[in-house]
UniProtKB/TrEMBL annotation:
InterPro entries: CheY-like_superfamily, EvgA-like, NreC/VraR/RcsB-like_REC, Sig_transdc_resp-reg_receiver. This is DNA-binding NarL/FixJ family response regulator. Gene3D superfamilies: 3.40.50.2300. Keywords: DNA-binding, Phosphoprotein. The modification 4-aspartylphosphate is found at D58. The keyword S-adenosyl-L-methionine does not apply.
Length: 128
């Protein structure tokens, strides 16, 4: 079993959300946030640069949101597992994210343990 922490990139257009996510994730001994992004372009660049074990991405951000991040990463051949993080719990957004290759979907406002569990599941999911 690896003792290296799980490396995470966060992408959300709201600074307060990014800071809260960082605090929640880094409260766990096995998780470390290596970068955070406010835009789709930043998210793709930072995920490409850091090659994290997982990225938590907002479903709705300016210039395309999580779906656009997932599509760009796929075009670049970057297979980082993604966790969608959204204020919207509707079937349409869930389907869009699933079709873009995002395996986990967490609603903002859920208990912090739900987010932590989703991050861990994403990292441990079998690669298809």
């Amino acid at each position: 079993m690896s003792t290296e922490p799980v490396r995470v990139v966060i992408a959300d257009d709201e600074l307060l959300i990014r800071e809260a996510l960082r605090a929640v994730l880094e409260a766990e001994a096995d998780l470390v946030v290596v970068a955070d992004a406010a835009t789709v372009d930043e998210a793709v660049a930072l995920i490409g640069q850091h090659r994290p074990d997982v990225a938590v991405i907002d479903v709705r951000m300016p210039t395309g949101g999580g779906v656009e991040v997932a599509r760009r990463l796929a075009r670049l051949g970057i297979g980082t597992p993604l966790v969608a993080f959204s204020a919207y719990d509707d079937a349409g957004n869930r389907k869009l994210m699933r079709n873009a290759g995002v395996g986990e979907y967490v609603i903002k406002g859920m208990p912090n343990a739900e987010l932590v569990s989703a991050v861990r599941r994403a990292v441990n999911a079998p690669v298809s």
